[in-house]
Here is the input.
Amino acid sequence: MIEVTDLTKNYTTGPVVTKVLQGINLFVPSGEFLSIMGKSGAGKSTLLYQMSLLDLPSSGRIIIDGVNTADFSDKARMNFRLNRLGYVFQDYALLPELSAVENVIVPLLMQGLNKVDAYARSIEALDAVGLAHRHDNRPSQLSGGEQQRVSISRAIAQKPDILFADEPTANLDSTSGQAVIEVMNKLHAERGQTIVMVTHELEYAREADRIIYLEDGQISGEEKQSAANH
Ligand SMILES: Nc1ncnc2c1ncn2[C@@H]1O[C@H](COP(=O)(O)OP(=O)(O)O)[C@@H](O)[C@H]1O
Ligand SMILES: [Mg+2]
Here is the structure.
């Protein structure tokens, strides 16, 4: 579970300080599928960066599974992120010269897994997102939706406690976007995967258990989805 308390984030560029997050309080229980919605510039990506430990807050607390992440050294932070958090970027962030399976293997090897286990886990993760027939293709040989599903398999291959996704459907047509959301739904339904997903498409946000709305760096509203919607 994630507990965010009084979180603020400012960016300083020369003499200019931009206040982006202005006191976020948020609790994400284990197993929840949470959507974050809000206009462009509202601070959604910034919030996801702080929660996934890709960046450090200006003030406030982020506790993940009882661990105060402010206590981490840089190395401990990186290891925690590598071992326990998965992140899916809007633009997939795949290595173009590597095949799908190689893209998924790289972080597993970085974690210290041996090659045989890393390969087996990568195959399993690709199969789980419906890419059993695409193991050896490079990103340029895959559609946008398939590339995003490779990126999701890379994020889930190490079985993260929390999967973060920043507008994973933003660059996709509606059929591919739907396929990506179905993968999220399946991970949540079958594995109880905790997911925090930023999107600005209400149709996709509604697939989650709960939606929070971000406006000018503050949470301006919240909506729980009834079980009937799922
Ligand atoms: N590294 C940065 N340096 C300075 N300003 C930034 C930086 N990253 C984001 N911002 C600013 O913070 C605000 C929120 O950005 P962001 O979190 O990307 O919003 P969203 O994802 O909701 O569109 C924007 O005004 C953006 O220009
Ligand atoms: Mg963003």
Notes: The helical segments are 44-51, 74-84, 100-110, 115-128, 144-156, 174-191, 202-205.
